[in-house]
Design a protein that fits this description.
Helix content: 25-40%
Structural class: alpha+beta
Largest sheet: 4 strands, mixed
CATH superfamily of the largest domain: Periplasmic binding protein-like II
CATH architecture of the largest domain: 3-Layer(aba) Sandwich
Shape: globular
Radius of gyration: 25 Å
CATH topology of the largest domain: D-Maltodextrin-Binding Protein, domain 2
Length: 521
């Protein structure tokens, strides 16, 4: 009897002191700032948050083109009206049920705030037909509308309105620090400069992989040396895509996986077309021809089989509407550069170009030095400035504060060329991190509008081909290379969407859907 009582006491003590099971934790990093408000999300860190905390009506088809139902079960198109039937039984993380009113509120909130990717939904009117049916009516034809819906995260309208105030009618303060989605992961803490912690949502409406991480810690702004050390020591799981190639190579040599995401975007060297001497097209063409595209590609190599990019053939990445074939890879042409420079209204020694690079992306420092050396061969003087991402986004809000030259990786955030190019080049969207060129060209605007409104793929191809030609003619940008994101990862995590093309989403950031990952310990 005494032995039985002692054993029972020991078991009770163990139950009080030990967890029911060991929680798996996924640790990864990205560049700050982590914008949690889904209506303001636009860059990579924001996308990771959005795709896990929130859901959308449709999602990209894995391993192929097109879109599949998600929060919606089906949709119909009747002219300019798109009608979606919602999935039954979906609840937000608060417990509130998903209804058509939440969809209407989400798009109206995005339109009212006018930030992030709100331009995708200009001229769209939403209506709740009934509790489980919502319709969108477009003022003008918009060919990629269904694709754009992957960027309409649905928020819990009841919860947000409960936390809104007279001075903050759309609940911006609340949503900048809290999640209000249906997503597979909920936010447990959030510091946009340091870390967001998320936990698995056991009430998610779809199956979550049993081995998916119980907790995710997304850290912001880690130094490359820190990430390298942490992964090598088994204390970090997935790096950002911004590590220098030799750090990626060292990690791979040490046994780390290299995960890849073939993007619908590229590396763009943005030229401020409002600031002399780059307000002169001949001056711009001089430096675009002087850029050493071949050396830039060599700088991206990680292993014999993995690279951070492929040669650019023009303004539009290979494979998208309007792109040129791989055989038309851009190459340096110093004879053309000198000829354009002779027509430029500014003497080479008077250029004094300011070349900026993003502090969190070390590769850009090397590309800045490459440009400085390239331009010096023409007698063009320049200086290099380091800008943290947050400061860069502030600087480009006005043309006079925007550097002559900015380096940016830009992706088609819906997988469609409209969301790669419209936000960069249409005259209605200046002063964002995507558009520091401040381009204002009627031919470019017309081609972009035609690409949005064309009724057939053939017509869209023609519109974007004309756009490609015009952009190469007026040179607002140096098209450095088509990008491929590469991430170093520990062997304790499996990410099929970033390692198996048949599982890839074809949309930047969605490969980081945590519910599909597997932790081995």
């Amino acid at each position: 009897m005494k032995r039985t009582l002692l054993a029972a006491a020991l078991l009770a003590a163990t139950a009080l002191t030990a967890p029911a099971y060991a929680q798996s934790v996924l640790r990864l990093d990205e560049v700050a700032v982590g914008e949690l408000d889904p209506a303001k999300a636009s860059d990579y860190a924001d996308s990771i948050l959005m795709f896990n905390v929130y859901d959308t009506l449709v999602i990209p088809t894995q391993g192929g083109p097109g879109h599949d139902p998600h929060l919606a079960t089906s949709w119909e198109v009747d002219g300019a009206t798109y009608t979606f039937t919602l999935r039954d039984g979906v609840t937000f993380q608060s417990g509130n049920p998903l209804t058509a009113a939440d969809v209407v509120y989400s798009i109206e909130r995005m339109q009212a705030l006018g930030q992030g990717l709100s331009y995708l939904f200009g001229g769209v009117t939403a209506e709740a037909v009934d509790d489980m049916t919502v319709s969108f009516t477009l003022d003008a034809p918009y060919a990629p509308f269904v694709a754009s819906l992957v960027r309409l995260p649905i928020v819990d309208s009841v919860l947000v309105q409960e936390n809104a105030t007279a001075d903050d009618e759309w609940g911006e303060t609340f949503l900048s620090a809290n999640g209000a989605g249906t997503g597979a992961y909920s936010v447990t803490s959030h510091n946009p400069q340091e870390e967001t912690v998320m936990a698995k949502n056991d009430g998610y409406f779809l199956e979550i992989n049993e081995a998916a991480p119980d907790q995710v810690r997304l850290r912001y702004g880690l130094e490359a040396a820190t990430v390298r050390t942490l992964i090598a020591q088994g204390e970090h799981d997935i790096s950002s895509q911004w590590l220098p190639p030799e750090v990626m190579q060292a990690l791979a040599n040490g046994g780390a996986q290299l995960l890849t995401e073939s993007g619908t975007g590229g590396f763009y060297v943005k030229l401020n077309t409002t600031k002399p001497p780059l307000d002169d097209v001949n001056c711009r063409l001089a430096i675009t021809n002087a850029f050493d595209y071949g050396t830039a590609i060599q700088m991206l190599a990680i292993t014999d089989d993995v690279s951070g990019g492929s040669p650019s053939t023009g303004a539009i990445p290979v494979g998208m509407f309007g792109s040129n074939p791989p055989s038309d890879a851009l190459a340096r042409d110093m004879d053309a550069a000198r000829a354009y420079l002779a027509e430029c209204g500014t003497a080479p020694g008077d250029f004094n170009l300011e070349i900026s690079w993003i502090a969190e992306v070390p590769l850009e420092e090397r590309l800045a030095l490459l440009m400085q050396a390239n331009f010096a061969e023409l007698g063009i003087s320049s200086s290099i400035e380091t800008l943290p991402w947050a400061l860069f986004t502030e600087r480009v809000a006005s043309p006079e504060n925007t550097p002559h030259i900015s380096q940016i990786f830009v992706n088609a955030v819906t997988g469609d060329p409209d969301t790669l190019l419209y936000g960069m080049y249409h005259s209605s969207t200046p002063g964002t991190w995507q558009s520091p060129e401040y381009l204002n060209d009627p031919e470019v605007d017309a081609a972009l509008d035609a690409g949005r409104q064309a009724a057939t793929d053939e017509a869209r191809e023609a519109a974007y081909s004309a756009l490609n030609d015009r952009l190469m003619e007026i040179a607002p940008t140096i098209y450095g290379f088509d990008r491929q994101s590469v991430f170093a990862a520990s062997d304790r995590v499996s990410v099929p969407a970033l390692s198996d093309p048949a599982m890839a989403f074809g949309l930047d950031g969605m490969g980081f859907s945590f519910r599909l990952m597997e932790m081995t310990e």
